[in-house]
Amino acid sequence: MAGVSEDEKDPTSGAGRGPRGVRVLRAGLGALGGLLAGLTALCVAELVSASVRPEASPVTAVGGAVIDLTPAPVKDFAVRTFGEDDKLVLQLGILVLLSLFAMAVGVASLRYRKSGSAAVLVFGAIGALAAVQRPDGRPVDALPSVVGGLAACGVLYLLAGRLADRPAPRGSSVPDTAVTGPDAPSAESGGGASPVAFDRRGFVIAATAAAAVSAGAGLLGRQLNASGAAEAAATRRSVVLPAPSSPARPVRPGAALDVRGLSSFTTPNKDFYRVDTALVVPRVDADRWRLRIHGKGVARPLTVSFRDLLRRELIERDITLTCVSNEVGGPYVGNARWIGVPLAALLAEAGVVPPSKGGPANQLVSRSVDGMTIGTPVEAVMDGRDAMLAVGMNGQPLPFDHGFPVRMVVPGLYGYVSACKWLQDLELTTFADYDAYWVKRGWSRQAPIKTQSRIDTPRPFASPKAGTVQVAGVAWAQHRGIERVEVRVDGGSWNRAKLAAEDSEDTWRQWLWEWPATSGSHTLEVRATDRDGSTQTDKRVGTVPDGATGWHSVVVAVD
User: Fold this and answer.
1) What is the DSSP letter of 287?
2) 407 and 358 in contact (C-beta within 8 Å)?
3) Torsion 544-545-550-552 (CA) sign
């Protein structure tokens, strides 16, 4: 028949399939319907999470579960590759996968309306399961994902219905969404029936309404969650740190070298590294915060408030912190001036005795409000070092990113075994009885910071001029101190660098070597020796299970 398209002549197209363009349009709208259902799930869940807690929202819960299940080498790769943006990359990845799943379900719902729509509940179930199985999970945390999944199921069922095949009214003209086939009655047959069509206008109206309502729910949920965060921010602004009973002395003259490109002796709060598992930074109301101290060998269990801590004798110290995920030459080390309550005195008040004096507990498990657990040797926090429950950082109340209202700081130990942020519980136990979060994932139970050094300037692949070039950086061996730093060029003999004055054994130490540089490509290497006489090994080892080793090197091209 003249004017009949190839699709209309194709006997495999069947009734309800028709021209390829219409099929593509219908499939595209089905995918769009799936995306809108996914949007509905997230937005409704955001609104419901405002009545539970922000951490219960599906993306946060699923993201947290992914972090919990990620093997140590993969986690280490993510930190090394994406740095402090690793959480953003994870969340974007979850949203991309959700979008692809939603589009596939949307297309499937065109043929299997009920089962396809019900498939959206899978996302809700995953979110609910992830939320309740988090270290700090509670049954009520499943509610946002469950309600969001049900809402998404209803939206997709509605939209799929608008895209379902339906006969056009008798005698009407063929619409642009008509679907024809060899089984559809033709005009020549005199049947008078119209081709099969779908309700495109009805879909547009329903989709627009679903998008508007979902967006409104999401914005309202975000606003309600933000109001809770605003209350916590208000309590932080109201904090006035008391003058410490034992203030830090001024930074020792000569401890900070004036070299361009060299890390400052004190790291500003905004530049201090952040490595943790929290996809949503906890916003803790200091007025409601409580710390519980209990467990094995605790003769007098304690519960203290934030104001209680501020009324105690405070110490102020410059202490360098280091993350175990810091690669050789990496950025996850920083030095700050901390104010806090001596931890040993607080434990002694609770009747705790260190193992060296017969105490039954050798591990102090600190718990964060987000469920993180960190195990610290009791001996280390009671051996005389300046271990503290920090309330201030560089003269300010702790920033939220760094643990407000209270965090632990223990000189000489990597953060994953000492530096619990958003602290709420201290339990005395033993290493034999309990494995903390990172230990369960393949990291060592005990992890003193390894002696390390870094070249800050010149930067890798820099092109300095021939002549005297300042090679400078930092070295650290907290709780031992740095004895010397050496630099060599192209595998030659080691040259002793000039050390800045030592502020304390718990802070990093700047160094400088003036290099008589000659033209060409050169490799600079650095190594440090601590006060115990231990020199950095040249053997390159990754961060797992207890910190990286090796010499930092930089390649430059001298003009």
Assistant:
1) T
2) no
3) positive
Q: How far does CA 525 lie from the centroid of its chain?
A: 32
Task: Write the CB contacts of 326 (distance below 8 Å, at least 6 apart in sequence).
Answer: 332, 333, 452, 543, 547, 548
pLDDT given for residue 166 in this prediction: 65
Q: How many whole angstroms separate alpha carbon 347 and alpha carbon 419?
A: 17
> Which residue type, as a one-letter code, is found at position 510?
Q
**CA–CA distance, 396 with 338 (Å, rounded to integer):** 9
Exposed, middle or buried by CB within 10 Å (0-12, 13-18, 19+), for 145? buried
Residue 510 structure tokens = 């700047």
Based on its alpha-carbon atoms, the radius of gyration of the chain, rounded to whole angstroms, reads: 31
| Greatest alpha-carbon span in the chain | 103
pTM: 0.84
Helix (H, G, I), strand (E, B) or coil at 237: helix
Q: Which long-range contacts (CB under 8 A, 24 or more apart) does 429-435 make?
A: 429/295, 429/296, 429/361, 429/363, 429/365, 430/296, 430/360, 430/361, 430/362, 430/363, 431/362, 431/363, 431/375, 433/363, 434/363, 434/365, 434/375, 435/375
| Contact status, residue 55 vs residue 67, Cβ threshold 8 Å | no
pLDDT of residue 110: 93
Tell me whether residue 268 is exposed, middle or buried, using C-beta atoms within 10 angstroms of its C-beta: 0 to 12, 13 to 18, 19 or more. exposed
pLDDT at position 556, please? 98
- 3-state SS record for 295-363: ECCCCCCEEEEHHHHHHCCCEEEEEEEECCCCCCCCCCEEEEEEEEEEHHHHHHHCCCCCHHHCCCCCE
**Over the chain (559 residues), what is each successive 10-residue block's mean pLDDT?**
40 46 88 95 95 91 89 82 87 92 94 91 92 90 96 96 72 48 40 60 94 96 90 95 97 96 98 94 96 98 98 98 97 98 98 98 97 97 98 98 98 98 98 97 96 98 97 98 98 98 97 98 98 97 96 97
Report d(CA 167, CA 187) in Å as an integer.
15
Structure tokens at 92: 């974007």
Helix or strand (DSSP H, E) at 167: strand 166-167
Q: What is the pLDDT of residue 84?
A: 82
Kindly report the number of other CB atoms within 10 A of residue 295's CB atom: 22
Contact status, residue 23 vs residue 17, Cβ threshold 8 Å: yes
pLDDT at 164: 86
